[in-house]
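<derive_structure_tokens>
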Amino acid sequence: MNTITNAQTAQTAQPHGQPDRPREMPLKALPAYEQIKRYVIRRICEGDWKPGGLIPSEMELVKEFGVARMTVSRALRELTAERVLTRVQGSGTFVAPQRYESTVLEIRNIADEIADRGHRHSASVLTLEPSDDPLALEALGLASGPAFHSCIVHSEEGEPIQYEDRYVNPKVFPDYLQQDFTVETPNHYMVRLAPIQRAEFRIYAQKPDAYVRRHLMMDIGEPCLQLWRRTWVGDDVATSVRLWHPASRFHLAGNV
């Protein structure tokens, strides 16, 4: 059974001037259907195949990769189950809308939210390290560590509005620790590489500890809103994050 060729891989190279894509497990080390899944996801993430657009047919992919039709069918079937693709009988396979759908909360990049208000986003990276925290490993569904851990303060026009405490699955994002998160937020980096299939979240009203309070420049006793969220890519928990927001500088809004 053939693997994806160098020429096929080259089609997905990052355009000049764009952030480098993290190195992944060598494609030849993966099952053929998984190679095809990675290829499809990469073409979507890099914008070659747009949401709602028709992708190549099963037979076209069979010819391109030199594999059995059942291998291509499995890859597309799994991507459909993961809501990366949608299949319409008699019409073909299409790229699904790449967004997290919720009547309560939409997952957005904080830098985009700030830009939409016409303001400037900046970030300060406090921690970027491997971690064996047992609660984090449990949240990510990892039997052993390390997980990747980052703590970042996001500011709007120089005023801190969010403390982000994030744990990341290294299986999904192996080069997370090599990124510059003052240039690109973790949210943007991860969504660029792998579309979110599902998420769960909880919202709490809590007092932050002294460390978080100091970095958010909050007064003692000032209320804080904390959002806890986990997201999945395929069958893997991709990230578990706690986002702290000073109540005086944050509001939650949406449409049902």
Remarks:
- The chain has two domains: 6-95, 110-249.
- Residues 1 and 67 are 6 Å apart (CA to CA).
- Helices lie at 6-10, 32-45, 58-65, 69-81, 110-116, 134-140, 186-193, 210-215.
- The two ends are 48 Å apart (CA to CA).
